[in-house]
Write a structure and sequence with these properties.
Length: about 200
């Protein structure tokens, strides 16, 4: 009887701890740190279509696109955009721009999460949109570089030399970098992941 009691208590404690870690898993400060660790590791911009394992599929850290910076940083906190976007698209495919933009008829777990427009739609559907134009560390921003060329990056906890603007951690073509470019292009989206992200 005593053994059953201790097993019950241990199981209850485990469930409570798991619930706490999943409910309060997201840290914007950690997102910035984890994105920054990619600097010097992701050296090339490579938009090639690649078949990925699922979930948690990735290409070599030495290469990637802008979305990979966000995807990789979030995975350190147990947030897998590959799986989350794919599952949402399976249920709500018509709400995503795939059929209009790329002519796709069904979700593709190899590429959907690596497209800026899909991440924008997913973040919007999760209620992460920010409209106050105050950019905090760990926020995610999207831009239009030119027609039909979208970009995404993470707001840093560091500022530019004048102290006026936060830097952005992103891969715009030369690997992952931390740069002063927040207002270099037209901002199309601003997102803040909720503390209870999972």
């Amino acid at each position: 009887m005593l053994k059953k009691y201790f097993l019950f208590r241990a199981a209850t404690l485990f469930i409570m701890l798991f619930a706490c870690t999943t409910a309060f898993a997201f840290s914007p400060e950690r997102l910035v740190r984890d994105a920054r660790t990619q600097i010097g590791k992701t050296l090339f911009y490579d938009p090639s279509y690649v078949r990925l394992s699922y979930p948690m599929g990735d290409i070599s850290i030495i290469r990637g696109v802008c979305t990979d910076v966000v995807i990789r940083a979030l995975r350190h906190q147990g947030i897998d955009l590959q799986q989350l976007v794919h599952e949402d698209m399976r249920k709500n495919f018509r709400l995503y721009p795939n059929s209009q933009r790329w002519g796709l008829k069904k979700p593709d777990a190899n590429i959907d999460h690596r497209r800026v427009l899909n991440l924008q739609r997913y973040f919007e559907r999760r209620g992460y949109t920010v409209t106050d134009r105050v950019f905090l560390p760990g926020d995610i921003v999207t831009w239009n570089l030119r027609p039909q060329v979208e970009h995404i990056g993470i707001v840093s906890d560091r500022k530019n030399s004048s102290g006026q603007r936060p830097l952005i951690i992103h891969n715009i073509g030369l690997g992952t970098r931390e740069e002063d470019m927040l207002h270099d292009f037209t901002i199309t989206g601003h997102y803040r992941i909720a503390q209870k992200a999972n």
